[in-house]
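Quick start: read one record
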Amino acid sequence: MNVNPIIAASETVTRASRLACRALSAAILLSATLSAQTALTWQQVEQKFKASNPTLKAAQLNIDESRAEEITAFLRPNPDFTLSADGTQLTPYHGVYQPFTGTQVSPNISYLHERDHKRELRRDTQKETTAITASQYLDQMRNLIFTLRSAFVQTLQSKAVLENARENLSYWDRELDVNRLRFKAGDLAQVDLNRLELQRAQFESDYETAIVNLRTSKIQLLMLLDERTPVEQFDVTGPFTFGEALKPLEEYRNVALEARPDLRAAVQNVELAQLNYKLAVANGSTDPTYSVWWTHNPSFNNPNDFNTIGASVSIPLRIFDRNQGEKARTQIDIGRNEKLSDAAKAQVFNDVDSAYYTLVQNINLLLPYKTRYLPLAIDVRDRMSFSFRNGGASLLDFLDAEKSYRDTRLAYLNLIGSYMTAAAQLNLAAGREVIE
């Protein structure tokens, strides 16, 4: 079948034009997508988290509830008002029926007087409870910030792994181009070229897996931020590296003793227990009730006195002290909270020490990787590639060198991720950010 060369050339130009238009459209779409992305730094992510996380907002309402209970705790007892009537005639007597002549009307007002500063102690107890609630809120925020920081680090690590997978795939494609030329020139066997082509499947698998891991990390971060931004339009940015300098362990311990909100809450629980004991002692005291009343009717001793006034004081007789159990319980509770405070302090030291030495171990591993192993793996791979092209190395040696480089590079990136997670763990243990 004869084909007109002019028509064939025209069709070739048309296909090329279509491909160029598609490439241009894809470039425009990619540019629009990238411009729509919002790359957030860690400070911006933390700020958005504190402003929008529903779990944190719900925990903050506990403080408001406890503060509202302070008003209730300091309320005064309300006076009681009683209106009584007596002496109303029910049946006629000797033919005389005057039902309301002898009726006595007596309005009565009584008030319970609380002694031994019960109101003030209730108020102070509730204020201390509010302070503990605030410390517990800060402790919950501390743990949630660690979860957020871990998700942020995971996203940065996924981005670095994806970029590494993309570079490996591009590098292997260049190797394939060179070896295809060698095959066409008769310098490479078909079976060796096929094995090189099959090796690309591993690079493609790494690349696709890295894409999925990055999307999963972003979804986790979006969930913590309570964001509905599409994953394609959401991005974070920040240094994915490690620092070599650390302060002495004692400095991190001192920071933790001052900043850890759970330790502060443990100390405040001791103070609350002491206030509860004082309140239990105060509740054991007697509270008199004062009453005053007015009566409209002649008094029994003075027929001419139609308006009389009276007063009384009611004092409970504390023959049996019914508050002994509460006093004993609250006194025991002081000792219990003191032990819990000591345990919390020991936990602070444990957390700081564990995070610190984990960080030291990561640095000790990262330094030789950065200065020796990673450059060595690159050098071995490049030399083996050159030797394979020139017939000085076998295909297996070349593939083994490529795998060693890929494993070393991935291990290095994972170690950086472990270092940044350990740094976040040290921040968690210290109670505030001590390593950026």
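Residues 1-36 have pLDDT under 50 and may be disordered.
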